[in-house]
Amino acid sequence: MHLKHLISCIFVCFLGSFLGQSGGLNSFAFLNLDYSARNAALAGTAISLQTDDINLAISNPSLLNSDMHKKIAFNHAILSGGINYGMVSYAHQLKKGTIAGSLKYNDYGKMIMTESNGIAIGEFRPFEYILGLSYGYQLNPNISVGASVNLIGSHLESYSAFGASIDLAGTYMHVNKLFSVSAIFKNAGFKFKDYTSNDSGILPADMQLALSYKLKHAPFRFSMLIHKLNQWNLDYVDPNAQPTYDPLTGNLIPVPTISFIENLARHFAFSAELNMSKNIHLRMGLNYLRRQELKLTDRPGMSGFTLGAGFNFSKIRIDYAFTIYSRAGFNNLLSISTPLDKWRKEKKIIRVITTPAF
To answer: Which residues make beta-bridge pairs with 208?
Structure first.
């Protein structure tokens, strides 16, 4: 019965997404960044995996569970131009449910401040952050729900903007533990202070559906993400583009647009994970929308592809991701997580041996 309810909810989400409309330019675009190396290596598709990985639970709060109790994680990425971003997160088990806190940061490095004539007059350092609080609850062995509340801040020279957002999520895990599906509505919120009085951007709300299946008799897991369900049209049309005329026939040539199939494909991302052992995992993914938006027309290469690996040690877990945006840019992301309980010093037991007196 619970599965029927979940399917009904997912159907309503799909219906709402096609009826929904989006307009205007998005603010706080950094809400869409992948701060988890594991999720980044899998092209953002890992948000339906029920594991003990706290980083995935920050992206999908319905994944929070008791196995994450007292786990802390550090994530950091370095981009060209001195740009850094990352996340620190911690989870704690309550009597009912699991709670987690996170701090995401974006440091854009030093930038030169100039006058309108190009004369340098100083330096400034833009930065942005997201302070989040998440809660997850297990309704039964197969279904869990969760929510996150985020406070958002952005400081660009003398301009600042602040906002708040919520994430709502639900996850279903099949009894065989091989198949899972999650429905997530992210970045629903508002700005309570804008950079200027003329700004009218909205938060980049995103409705997502993620599915994952692990082969029973092979060490492979395949995942799929369907994203931006609340925004059907993902074609970017240059507002300055104008129709042209064929010089031979004189026929009007309209501004190019993408086909229905192409637009549909841009909503999908795929990944595969090879579990070589309990301690070594290899990953690869493809975000088709990212590929189509960032590739060079004549030399697309591996734009939109992601690669990565994960290593489990006795006390720590290390994940690495290599994200290829285009031939002109890529990203390295490293995650380190550990349960604090394992670092407690074990109490030494001293045995006192007494010798009987004769």
So the answer is: 184
182: enclosing H helix or E strand: strand 179-193
| Residue numbers of the domain that contains 175 | 2-21+32-232+251-343
| Chain segment 284-294, per-residue pLDDT in tens | 999 999 999 88
Q: In whole angstroms, give the CA distance from residue 87 to residue 241.
A: 39
The pLDDT of 323-327, averaged and rounded, is 87
Tokens found for residue 43: 């092209």
In a domain, 240, yes or no: no
Query: Could you give the number of structural domains in the chain?
Result: 1
Contact assessment for residue 208 and residue 229, using Cβ atoms and an 8 Å cutoff: yes
Distances, alpha carbon 218 to alpha carbons 180, 214, 225, 277, in Å: 17, 8, 22, 11
User: Are 249 and 243 within 8 A, CB to CB?
Assistant: no
Residue 133: closest CA among 110, 150, 111, 116: 150
Q: What is the CATH number of the domain that holds 104?
A: 2.40.160.60
Beta bridge partners of 281: 275, 310
Task: State the Cα angle at 159 between 157 and 162, rounded to 5°.
Answer: 125
What is the number of alpha carbons within 13 Å of residue 70 lying toward its C-beta? 7
**Mind listing the pLDDT tens digit for each residue in 328-353?**
788 899 999 999 988 875 554 445 54
The radius of gyration computed from the CA coordinates of the chain, to the nearest angstrom, equals 24
CB 298 within 8 A of CB 319: no
CA 193 to chain centre: 25
242 located within any domain: no
Q: Are 88 and 132 in contact (CB under 8 A)?
A: no
Q: Does residue 352 sit within a domain?
A: no
pLDDT attached to residue 96: 93
| Percentages (nearest 5) of helix, strand, coil residues in the chain | 15, 45, 40
Residue 105 within any structural domain of the chain: yes
- Provide the phi-psi class of 203: left if phi over 0, else alpha when psi is between -120 and 50, else beta: beta
